[in-house]
Amino acid sequence: MIARLRALARRLKAELLALSVAARDPRTPWYARALALLVLAYALSPIDLIPDFIPVLGYLDDLLLVPAGLWLALRLLPPEVLADARRAAEAHPRRLARSGWGLALMLLIYAAALLLGWWWWAAGHAPPTHAARHFP
Fold this sequence. Notes:
Blueprint: H1 2-23, H2 30-44, H3 57-76, H4 79-91, H5 100-125
Helix pairs in contact: 1-2, 1-3, 1-4, 2-3, 2-5
């Protein structure tokens, strides 16, 4: 069981590296590149959407969001780009470092979520803008 999990983790890292290579390939469509960069930023960011100290949910987002985003990003890549990226990643394996851009992106997403939440809350709790004028 542990050997399977380690093999799966190695494969996930290899696919993330291939996605990193493919995102820099000029043959990659803009939408696939955008999703690839978003997935890489989230996977390599030192902070998570749901912090790991929250029981179950903290690790569940890593177990679901990263593989799901990776799966979708890989599906959007042209097959020849993905094959070349996998070969390049296998020929030159390297460790993907934590991303400062990923941190900035996650902080931006948090700020946007907070602003949208505040806006939604303020819109629902705002006093009426018109006064009742039923009296002559």
